[in-house]
Amino acid sequence: MVSAYSDSPALVLNADFRPLSYFPLSLWSWQDAVKAVFLDRVNIVSEYEREIHSPSFTMRLPSVIALKTYIPLTRRPAFTRFNVFLRDRFACQYCGTAQPTSELTFDHVIPRSRGGRTTWENVVAACTDCNLRKGSQLPKDAGMHPRRAANEPSNHQLQQNGRAFPPNFLHDSWRDYLYWDSELDPV
Ligand SMILES: [Zn+2]
Predict the structure, then answer these.
(1) Strand pairing partners for 66?
(2) pLDDT at 178 over 90
(3) 183: Cβ–Cβ under 8 A, 6 or more apart, which residues?
(4) N or C terminus: which one in the chain shows less Cβ crowding within 10 Å?
(5) Tens digits of per-residue pLDDT, 8-20?
């Protein structure tokens, strides 16, 4: 992952200069970024030191680009494994311990064997120990209740959580665009 990130990718901003997504970050390879520049689809916002040369031109690789056409963000976040973990801040919802994603599991609050469904409202992140301890019991029988009631998060909520868990590789020129609106956003 780091090698892909470190080969001069461009951070892609929407036409309003906000990142298209925080998780995963919207990154284009430098080849795609340069192509989009020549197709006049993006504005270059910031550049790397690294240059590319051809017989007819020299250009610095873009590190941040902004789309010329605004893309409306989908209103509802996808119900994915990763987004559930992100909603729950990568922490077990029973003991509160933060875990790497490889150590986290899903728990059905109302077990499937008791009719519980696989939905935002019934699935929470849980560490392996808590998941095993709870087993197929109802929360009240196990005495284990999620710390926060499970619900469908908004994109805004996921973005807020995403800011607290920055990816491993961030180019300096990206930081402003990933964080500058965090204090100005009306909540
Ligand atoms: Zn736990």
Answers:
(1) 13, 43
(2) no
(3) none
(4) C
(5) 999 999 998 888 8
Contact 97, 127 (CB under 8 A): yes
- C-beta separation of 52 from 58 below 8 A: yes
Ligand 1 mean position, distance from CA 24 (Å): 25
Structural element, H or E, at residue 33: helix 30-38
Name the nearest CA neighbour of 123 among 161, 76, 85: 85
Query: What's the CA-to-centroid distance between 115 and ligand 1, angstroms?
Result: 23
Pairing assessment for the beta strands 10-13 and 58-67 based on DSSP bridges: parallel
Strands 58-67 and 42-53: antiparallel
Read off the pLDDT of residues 69-80 as tens digits, 9 standing for 90 and up. 998 877 788 898
149-173 residue pLDDT tens: 899 999 888 888 887 777 767 788 8
With contact defined as beta carbons under 8 Å apart, do 157 and 164 qualify? no
Distance CA 21, CA 19 (A): 5
